[in-house]
Amino acid sequence: MYEMCAGQEHPGGGLVWHVMAPDGGVTLCGQPLVEAADARAAESAGNCPRCMACVAELMSAAGR
Questions:
Q1: Residue 50: closest CA among 32, 29, 33, 20
Q2: How far is CA 2 from CA 7, 11, 12, 13, in A?
Q3: Which superkingdom (predicted)?
Q4: Residue 9: is it exposed, middle or buried by C-beta count within 10 angstroms (0-12/13-18/19+)?
Q5: How would you class 7 by CB atoms within 10 Å of its CB: exposed for 0-12, middle for 13-18, buried for 19 or more?
Q6: Distance (Å, rounded) from C-alpha 31 to C-alpha 18?
Q7: Which of 4, 16, 21, 35 has the greatest number of CB atoms lying within 10 Å of its CB?
Q8: Is the Cβ–Cβ distance between 31 and 17 less than 8 Å?
Q9: Which of 58, 56, 44, 49 is nearest to 9 (CA)?
């Protein structure tokens, strides 16, 4: 199971929801999350498009 964590899309970028890699500390898109954002502050944030592309790829590979 993957965990969602709010953080900057990239350094200095806006807040998005990232998908954390199973080993933790880094997102599926490779963005290290030094400091996770408060979930309440990111309530209306979108999903990280790069993380979502990784999830789609993982789901596609699992269905083969």
A1: 29
A2: 16, 23, 25, 23
A3: Bacteria
A4: buried
A5: buried
A6: 9
A7: 16
A8: no
A9: 49
Q: What are the structure tokens assigned to 26, written together? A: 């880094």
Closest Cα partner for 50 from 64, 39, 40, 8?
Answer: 8
Q: Find out whether 29 and 5 touch, Cβ atoms under 8 Å.
A: no
Average pLDDT over residues 2-16: 87
- Looking at residue 38, the DSSP 8-state letter turns out to be P
* Token representation of residue 57: 């790829």
Tokens of 23: 């080993």
**Amino acid (1-letter code) at residue 17:** W
pTM of the predicted protein model: 0.82
